[in-house]
C-alpha cells in the first residue's frame, strides 16, 4: 500500500493509513499541574507574540531557563520518498509552565531550533525530537535530570509509574454511528492534563496487541490499554517520572501506532495500539549544541552589560603649554650696552 503521511501544525500530530502513529494528549485525562515544566507552544505569523485565541499549538517541556524539548513532527513531515518537509513557517513562542491556554503574558520567542539528526520515517516516525532555544530566560530553572540507558532499565523493570502531560484533546471526537477518523469537534484542554502508565518491552506490547512492529526495536515502548496513551494536540509534551526521589525527564509524549487517539486515528486496533517515543539520551548531541549556543549568548549578554556598566573615562584638563623662556641678550651701541629679555629678543639698529 502506498505510504501516506499527513502532518498538521495546528493539530500537531502525524499518522499513516497503515500504522497510524499519532502524538497524543489523553482521552478523559485529568487536569494536573504537578509537573513544574510543562509549557504551551504558540505560533505567530509575525515576530510579535500572539494576542488572541485560546488554543495551544502543541506542548513542550522546559529543560532549563531557555532550553525547551518538543516533537520534531510539529516542524516537519515526510514525503513519499522519506524526505523531510518543513511545514511550520510560523514564529514559535513558548508560554510559562502550567499557564492556561491563551495566557500570553510572559511568552518568549523561539530563537533557534535543533532538529534530531535521527528524525526519519521508517515504517514509523522515529527519532522524533527537537530542542528549542529561547531568546531569553522563560523563568529561572536549573537543568532537569535526564534518563540514561541504565535508568531506563531500572524504571521499566521496577514498573515505576511514568506520567505524560500535555495541552491536547481529551474528549471522544466520535458521535454514535460516525466512522473513524472522526472530525474535530471540541476545544483542546485549557490546562495540562495527564495520563499514567509504565514502560514496557516491545515484546510485551506486541503480545498485548497481537502483531509485530520490529521497526520499533530501538524505541521506548508504552501501552495504556484500550484507548491508548492519548489524543492529538499534546505533541512534544513530556513523559517524566519520579524515581528514588529524583524528578527525571524520559522523552516527549509518545507517538501511537493503531491507537484510538480520541477517534482521530483511522487505524484503531481496539487494544490501545503501541505507543513509542525516542529516549532523551539518544539526543544528547543536539542538547549539547543548544547548551553551547545558550552559553555563547549569555557570554555576549554579560560582556555587553559589563561594557555598559563601566564609567566613562574622566577627560583630563587641557594643559596650556607655556612658551620656553629665552635667555636675555645684550645689545651694545658704542660704549653703552643693554640687556634685553623681552619676548622678541632683537637688538634694534638705526
The global form is elongated
Helical/strand content category: alpha+beta
What is the distance, rounded to the nearest whole angstrom, between the alpha carbons of the first and last residues? 125 Å
* Number of separate strands: 24
**Major beta sheet, specifics?**
6 strands, mixed
SS summary, helix count: 3
**Percent of residues in beta strands?**
25-35%
Protein described:
- The chain is of the alpha+beta class.
- Helices cover 12% and strands 29% of the residues.
- The chain has helices spanning 149-157, 202-209, 284-309, and strands at 5-8, 13-16, 30-31, 38-44, 58-64, 67-70, 76-78, 84-86, 91-94, 108-115, 120-121, 125-126, 130-134, 145-146, 162-166, 193-197, 199-200, 220-222, 238-243, 246-252, 255-257, 274-277, 329-333, 336-340.
- It has a six-stranded mixed β-sheet with strand order 3-16-15-19-20-14, with no helix packed on it. The chain has a six-stranded antiparallel β-barrel with strand order 4-5-6-13-10-9. It has a four-stranded antiparallel β-sheet with strand order 17-18-22-21.
- The longest helix has 26 residues, at 284-309.
- The radius of gyration is 34 Å and the shape is elongated.
- It starts with a strand and ends in a 10-residue tail after the last strand.
